[in-house]
Write a structure and sequence with these properties.
Blueprint lengths: L12 E4 L13 H13 L5 E3 L11 H15 L5 E5 L4 H14 L3 E4 L9 H12 L5 E6 L1 H4 L5 H10 L3 E6 L5 H10 L4 E4 L5 H7 L3 E4 L6 H12 L3 H15 L7 H11 L16 H16 L11
Helix pairs in contact: 1-2, 2-3, 3-4, 6-7, 8-9, 9-10, 11-12
């Protein structure tokens, strides 16, 4: 068993960063969340990450977080791991979130830097270690310097991994594919490297990434799994053709309105609604019209694909 599989958690394959659905009253639609997660697992996804940026986790109360995590564990937890994103203003609150996830039955954590206060590396490392060491759950460091203003360099990733046994993976969202090879050169198979931006997945797999924390998978799981598996199998021509079709939608994951846009794609394929939680508001006007045009034009040319597992 590889280090990434310790504790029943494998950080490989396509793992959706699941959106959080809201009903007409603005409350979390727990029943739909369970249905949505099962639908993606049926398509071949290997886990579910809840409460991240795409999941609008920062807008949910602690009670809502617990209810949603328990529902997802009940829905798919016997088939694939459920992973909870951990992000808070303070280390104390982040540790509480990690402990809540363990009680809910999650098998993994995706650990973000503390919100607002960036700190220096000594402070960041102490924060990460405290969260990752608080439970027995396998942990993935989330590095997204564009979104959070904190860049964990490959050398720091390695320092943290060797110091913290619970750290088994890193979600690399710097959009620099060289980070994949840099981390692997320092750590080998000590951690798995997962791609965290949708429009870099084929390049990331070519560089050695073994997983994808995916966004557009919320609307197109069959295509997402097929793309990842074709790339993992080295079937580059087939992967390129599917990637070229998919890219107009995958690029929706890397703009400030990515939550709105991915939910809009979900609505267009009949698996979810556009509802977001304030301060976000549903898209309107020319921006929404432009997005709808791109989405519908791309879906009109949707290829027939099947999941092809790598040999």
């Amino acid at each position: 068993m590889s280090t990434s599989q310790a504790g029943g958690m494998s950080w490989r394959g396509v793992i959706p960063a699941i959106t959080t659905p809201f009903d007409a009253r603005g409350e979390v639609d727990v029943a739909f969340a369970a249905t949505h997660a099962a639908w993606m697992v049926d398509a071949g996804c290997t886990g579910i990450v809840a409460l991240g940026s795409l999941g609008e986790g920062g807008t949910l109360s602690r009670e809502e977080r617990g209810v949603l995590l328990r529902a997802l564990v009940q829905a798919v937890g016997a088939r694939v791991p459920v992973v909870a994103a951990v992000a808070a203003l303070s280390t104390r609150e982040a540790v509480a979130q990690a402990e809540q996830a363990a009680v809910a039955g999650c098998r993994g954590l995706m650990v973000l830097p503390a919100y607002v206060y960036k700190g220096d590396w000594r402070e960041r490392r102490t924060h990460f270690e405290a969260v990752m060491s608080a439970t027995g759950l396998s942990s993935m460091l989330y590095n997204n310097p564009m979104a959070y203003g904190v860049d964990v360099l490959p050398e720091q990733v390695a320092e943290l991994a060797w110091a913290c046994p619970a750290m088994r993976a890193v979600k690399e969202s710097s959009a620099d594919v060289r980070r994949v090879t840099a981390i692997r050169a320092l750590l080998g198979e000590r951690v798995e490297v997962l791609v965290g931006v949708d429009d870099l997945i084929v390049e990331g797999v070519a560089a050695g990434a073994t997983g994808w924390i995916a966004g557009l998978v919320n609307a197109l799981p069959v295509e997402s799994v097929a793309l990842f598996d074709l790339a993992s199998a080295g079937r580059w021509d087939d992967a390129r053709r599917l990637y070229e079709w998919f890219l107009p939608l995958l690029r929706l994951d890397v703009v400030p309105e990515f939550v709105h846009l991915i939910k809009l794609v979900q609505a267009e394929v009949g698996m979810g609604s556009e509802r977001v939680r304030r301060p976000r508001m549903e898209m309107a006007g020319p921006a929404r019209e432009d997005a709808i045009r791109v989405i519908r034009d791309t879906l009109a040319a949707r290829p027939k694909v099947r999941v092809v597992k790598p040999t």
